[in-house]
């Protein structure tokens, strides 16, 4: 029970930290500044678009800023610029997923700790029953079993909320990834003319290969 209690405290702290982290990353901000920068970018005002994102720490803004810089670099082809954007996106999504392993671990080992407590409790209860011999009191055995099963219930009480929170965080990060992919596509649709002509398959935003890379970036 002490181990399960410590696990629940650690899980609560991790979930609160993760919520704060996602708020800092702008997971629920809606990407207003990124949308404004993309509108400026589409109208051809590249400097103002980059200025609108200066100092922004949300993941959307950081990816859009990186994509704009890559797209505006005349020394990069479309594919090189998109590869650089995917590289940045992978790093940002890795930051967004930090801590999910810990929550997943808590959801996994919570029931196992409870089961371990139940098994050891049952062993103790049956040992006491054996020592009592013919004078065994069924109430004593029932009390030992009740206490042993309590650890299983406690472990499940930790694991179920952990699994729910994990699924919620996963959905938030998936939505963030889709928003980042959409923003990067809008950047490359309106990319400034490069010194070298871009391949025809890159003329309309992200290529299928780049989309696949971004989809697995998480």
From TrEMBL:
Boundaries of every MotA/TolQ/ExbB proton channel domain copy: 59-181
Membrane topology recorded in Swiss-Prot or TrEMBL: Multi-pass membrane protein
Keyword annotations from UniProtKB, A to Z: Cell membrane, Cell projection, Cilium, Flagellum, Membrane, Protein transport, Transmembrane, Transmembrane helix, Transport
Top-level taxon: Bacteria
GO cellular component terms, A-Z: plasma membrane
Biological process (GO), any one: protein import
Compartment(s): Cell membrane; Membrane
Similarity section: Belongs to the exbB/tolQ family.
Protein's recorded name: Flagellar motor protein MotA
Lineage start: Bacteria, Pseudomonadati, Pseudomonadota, Alphaproteobacteria, Rhodobacterales
């Amino acid at each position: 029970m002490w181990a399960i209690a410590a696990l629940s405290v650690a899980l609560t702290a991790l979930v609160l930290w993760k919520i704060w982290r996602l708020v800092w990353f702008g997971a629920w901000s809606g990407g207003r500044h990124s949308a404004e920068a993309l509108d400026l970018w589409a109208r051809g005002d590249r400097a103002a678009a980059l200025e609108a994102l200066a100092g922004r720490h949300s993941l959307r803004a950081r990816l859009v800023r990186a994509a704009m810089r890559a797209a505006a670099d005349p020394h990069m082809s479309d594919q090189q610029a998109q590869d650089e954007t995917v590289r940045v996106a992978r790093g940002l999504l890795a930051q967004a997923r930090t801590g999910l392993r810990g929550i997943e671990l808590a959801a996994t080992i919570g029931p196992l700790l409870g089961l371990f407590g139940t098994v050891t409790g049952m062993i103790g209860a049956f040992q006491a029953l054996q020592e009592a011999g013919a004078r065994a009191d069924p109430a004593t055995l029932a009390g030992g079993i009740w206490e042993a099963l309590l650890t299983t219930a406690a472990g499940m009480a930790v694991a179920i909320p952990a699994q729910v929170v994990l699924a919620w965080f996963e959905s938030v990060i998936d939505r963030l990834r889709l928003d980042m992919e959409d923003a990067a596509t809008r950047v490359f649709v309106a990319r400034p003319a490069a010194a070298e002509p871009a391949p025809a398959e890159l003329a309309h935003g992200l290529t299928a290969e780049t989309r696949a890379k971004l989809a697995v970036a998480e």
